[in-house]
Amino acid sequence: MSRITPEAHVGAVAEAVETRSPHEPEFMQAVDEVLDSLVPVLQEHPEFIEAGILERLVEPERQIMFRVPWVDDEGQVRVNRGFRVQFNSALGPFKGGLRFHPTVNLSVIKFLGFEQIFKNALTRQRIGGAKGGSDFDPQGKSTAEVMRFCQSYMNELYRYIGEHVDVPAGDIGVGAREIGFLFGQYRRITNQHESGVLTGKGKGWGGAEVRTQATGYGAVFFAQEMLARTGEGLEGRRAIVSGSGNVAIYVIEKVAQLGGTAITASDSSGYVVDEQGIDLELLKQVKEVDRARISEYAERRPSARFVAGGSVWDVPGDLAFPCATQNELTEAGARSLLDGGVRAVAEGANMPTTPDAVALFQQAGVLFAPGKAANAGGVATSALEMSQNASRDSWDFEQSELKLHRIMRDVHDASYAASERYGRPGDYVLGANSAGFVTVAQAMLDQGVV
């Protein structure tokens, strides 16, 4: 076999992906971000080139698309599109969330599934990467409509999942309510209580402590570890948080528990600033119970103000946690954060920071944690839920949080060690990508060309 340089190999793989997937910009962005980190790894491991690891890694093992018909409360038939992309199972059964949001398409699901491969590898929990969802929008739907949609979605999805095959969880638009409806339909169809088939379940029927909090808590734990390496901490820090869903809520909670103050939250209508610190119970009431817009928080909280539209990143702060959606933190937002004195950025969402913004943070010496490392706590705790389901065991909150904290410390340390090994100490993007890749690539090498 003729030898090709790592640079040429990475370029050829990127070109092939772009040719095969010309209308999938989110997926291409995720692939480029990983490939850009792998030249030094391939220099050390030429056997990965010879075995065609990259060529196989960027192609999903299986892509499933299906229609989801359901009937709304007015008796009208609606049809949405469902997805499940099972990307790589070299380390274990496929694992990754389901996202219900009108922006969902194949490109978004593929980017999320590709990211999930490396995120799952970093947790060392022996799970593969997948993602799924639908362009269904739960916002504004009745509970009965959400139930009927979830049941219809599971009528197709059940064929492709199982505790030893593929274990979905929640994501944007899919919380405990949706997981409950999905599991109920799965149990009805299969006639078995296979609790390990979904994670994020209710604690009374197979769910795990801390799973609800895990992604948000984990992002803060990762930021804590980054700061600790430089002799700093969270105490007294102002945190700028985007989003107001599950991840944002528990970032806000853990920042407060560690001595910081989160002063913002947002949704698609705008953001709120509360200099006294976000009132967590009020935020939960507005977003989780009332399912209202974030402006309602400001209407009920005298110390808060609502800003329609605009950018939450215009608010000065020491720490930033983008927790809403992909590409929300742009170059302009990064410049605003830098002007405001930001010290560290930890991604609570998946790929929320654009490449230009990441480059700005790194050039300025800001600590930057990519989502595949910083938000790995959610899937890590999902894997712990799978372990408890398999053994029919349960752990208390303190025990579960301790395990989560330990996993996030290990993810941080593995990412930092890889950044040192490959010549850029403190570059967590390089570190997370290379550490996750080596783990998956070695498993693929060992298992042959499959």
What count of domains describes the coordinates?
Answer: 3
Mean pLDDT equals: 96
What percent of residues are in strands?
15-25%
Radius of gyration: 21 Å
CATH domain class name of the largest domain: Alpha Beta
N-to-C CA distance: 20 Å
Basic shape: globular
By CATH's scheme, which homologous superfamily of the largest domain applies? NAD(P)-binding Rossmann-like Domain
Number of strands: 13
Backbone structural class: alpha/beta
Quaternary: single chain
Helical percentage: 40-55%
Indicate the CATH topology of the largest domain: Rossmann fold
Number of alpha- plus pi-helical segments: 18
Largest sheet: 5 strands, mixed
Low-confidence stretches: none
- Main sheet: which strands, in order across? 1-2-4-3-5
**CATH architectural category of the largest domain:** 3-Layer(aba) Sandwich
What does this structure look like?
The strands form three sheets. The protein has a five-stranded mixed β-sheet, with helices on both faces. A five-stranded parallel β-sheet has the order 7-6-11-12-13, sandwiched between helices. Helix content is 48%, strand content 15%. Helix 16 packs across helix 17 (397-421). It folds into three domains: 6-57, no CATH class; 62-193, Rossmann fold (3-Layer(aba) Sandwich), CATH 3.40.50.10860; 214-374, Rossmann fold. Strand 12, helix 14 (355-363) and strand 13 form a beta-alpha-beta unit. The mean pLDDT is 96. By secondary structure, it is an alpha/beta fold. It has 18 helices and 13 strands.
